[in-house]
Amino acid sequence: MFKRNLGASFAAFGLVAALSSPVLAPSASATTAPSDVQAGNYKIETTHTQVAFSLLHFGFTNYSGLFSGATGMLSLDPAHPTNDKLNVAIPVASVQTTSDKLTDELKGADWFDTAKYPNATFVSTKVVPNGKGKATVTGDFTLHGVTKPIVLHVSYIGAGINPLDKAYTVGFHATGIIKRSDFGVKAYVPMVGDDVTLSIAGAFEKQG
C-alpha cells in the first residue's frame, strides 16, 4: 500500500527520533543548525524509526497502518547534501493495523505476500536541497518484487547526543505518495484507495 513518492533522500529521509522519557531535557530537542550536523556514516536507529501509511477506505475514512523494524545506512555530508546516500530495508511482515484480522490478511498472497517478498527497500539516487533543512530525495523503491522510482519530501528535525544511549543522533521526517497498484498490490482497487500516503519518522545514529 503506497503511492508514487516514497520521498526525498533518506539522507534527508525523514524518520523522527521521538523520545518520550521524562529524562529528556530541552537540549534533547536538538537545536543544531542543519549545516552544523556532523558528517559521516549513520545507522538507522530501528526502535525509533517508523513508516506509517494511510489510504482511503471505501470512500468513508482514511485508514492507517504502520511498518517497523527498518534497518540501513545513511551517508551524510551537510556541506555537500547532493552527495548524501541512503539505503533502507523494511520487513513487510512488521505491518500493523488496529484489526488483527486485517493485519494477517495484508501479509497474505492477495496483498504483500510477505512469504515471497519479505522486504521493501529504498535506495536513494538523487538528493536536491530545497532550502534550509529540506530536500527532495529520489530513489529506487522495491515492494512486492517490483522496483520503481519514487520521491520523498524530507525535513530535518534535529541532531545531538541522545541522553539515553549517548549516541550522536540525527532525525528527519519524510512524506510521499505512492500508487500501490504500480507495485502489483491491487486488491480491492478502486474501492480501497490506490494512492497511499506515507509519513516516515527516521532516527539515525552516527557510527565511529
Automatic annotation (TrEMBL):
The keyword Signal applies. Residues 41-205 form the Lipid/polyisoprenoid-binding YceI-like domain. Pfam families: YceI. Residues 1-25 form the signal peptide. Transmembrane segments: none annotated. Keywords: Signal. Gene3D superfamilies: Lipid/polyisoprenoid-binding, YceI-like. PANTHER family: PROTEIN YCEI (PTHR34406). This is Polyisoprenoid-binding protein.
